[in-house]
Specification:
With 322 residues, the chain is of the alpha/beta class. The chain folds into two domains: 241 residues, 3-Layer(aba) Sandwich (Rossmann fold), CATH 3.40.50; 60 residues, no CATH class. It is built from ten helices and ten strands. A five-stranded parallel β-sheet has the order 2-1-5-9-10, sandwiched between helices. A three-stranded antiparallel β-sheet has the order 7-6-8, with no helix packed on it. Strand 1, helix 1 and strand 2 form a beta-alpha-beta unit. The radius of gyration is 21 Å and the shape is globular.
């Protein structure tokens, strides 16, 4: 007897290869995908501006990377002893204005260089709600400023489509080889309200659907649908009932691999999984002959993998087993 309907996302027309480089931007769900990619030895970077939730702030960040537009001192403001920027998460804020500028501009420069040659960009949209600072500027982070200083509203789908049509054109002019995967975060923004959260997600889904129907190099991966409609159970959420737990994120990752990563890379990833388990093995008797044989075995396996796939950095593993 079946108690749920399993959903297999359609395969992408073009697949990610282990040799590809990947930038990820967007909501906190981005962290999970990034961690799985890095564990599988993909060359990836995530959220140079820090975590971003709304589509406009994500687009603003991408445009800044393309233009290599550095932050100036007049763009920063001080709040609670930290120098902040409306387009950056507070984890880049510092007690010194100069240090904040250095951190933010280094992030922009690194993102500019990486994105110029990246094969993939994964954009995870979190919420269609935006907060506008006095004067109508959409902010990525409120930096604990009083709520009375902001106007909260929901973006219109056409607003998102218009914004991303321009941003995607700029990205493709900057990097002709760039492929873009959109996905909607399954994290539930319940502080907006139950009904409001669903409306917000539906706006994002509608806007992305319109975008990907217009261009060939755009793809959609249904992270949101896998958690909400396939798993469809509170036991796949953390204790806060808002964030998907390990089981859920692992399930989404496995579905992502099947749909978006090519067969050759998935085979190598199986070998890397075994290598990773050996790397984290805690021996009871590290000086024993048996463990020395174990280390020599995996040293040879690691060296063989490194020779077969020079683009994969296995120096840490080789050092560990040596």
């Amino acid at each position: 007897m079946d108690f749920r309907l399993e959903f297999d996302p359609p395969s992408l027309n073009k697949k990610i290869d282990l040799d590809d480089t990947i930038m990820l931007v967007g909501s906190c769900f981005t962290d999970h995908v990034f961690n799985y990619l890095v564990a599988s030895k993909f060359r990836a970077v995530q959220n140079p501006n820090g975590v971003l939730f709304n589509p406009v702030s994500i687009a603003n960040a991408l445009n800044r990377y393309v233009q290599h537009k550095h932050v100036s001192s007049i763009e920063l403001f001080e709040q609670n002893g930290l120098w902040n920027h409306w387009d950056f998460h507070s984890n880049l804020s510092c007690t010194s204005q100069e240090e904040s500028l250095v951190r933010m501009n280094e992030a922009i420069s690194s993102a500019h260089s990486f994105l110029k040659h990246a094969q993939w960009l994964i954009v995870t949209l979190g919420s269609a709600y935006v907060y506008e600072w006095q004067g109508g500027q959409i902010v990525a982070n409120c930096h604990k400023m009083p709520a009375s200083h902001f106007t909260k509203r929901m973006l219109d789908p056409d607003e998102i489509i218009s914004t991303y049509t321009k941003t995607i054109a700029a990205l493709k002019q900057f990097n002709h080889n760039l492929n873009i995967i959109f996905t909607i975060s399954p994290v539930r923004h319940l502080r907006d309200g139950f009904v409001e959260n669903n409306r917000s997600k539906s706006v994002l889904i509608h806007a992305v659907d319109k975008l990907i129907s217009q261009q060939d190099h755009l793809y959609y991966f249904p992270s949101y649908e896998l958690v909400v409609d396939d798993l469809r159970d509170y036991r796949f959420y953390a204790e806060d009932m808002v964030h998907p737990n390990y089981q859920a994120t692992r399930y989404v990752w496995e579905k992502f691999c099947a749909a978006a990563i090519n067969g050759r890379s998935r085979e190598v990833m199986k070998e890397l999984d075994q290598l990773n388990m050996a790397f984290h093995h805690k021996p009871l008797h590290p000086d024993s002959t048996e463990h020395m044989k174990f280390r020599n075995k995996y040293k040879e396996i690691t060296q063989s993998l490194a020779a077969r796939f020079p683009s994969i950095d296995l120096s840490k593993e080789i050092t560990h087993f040596s």
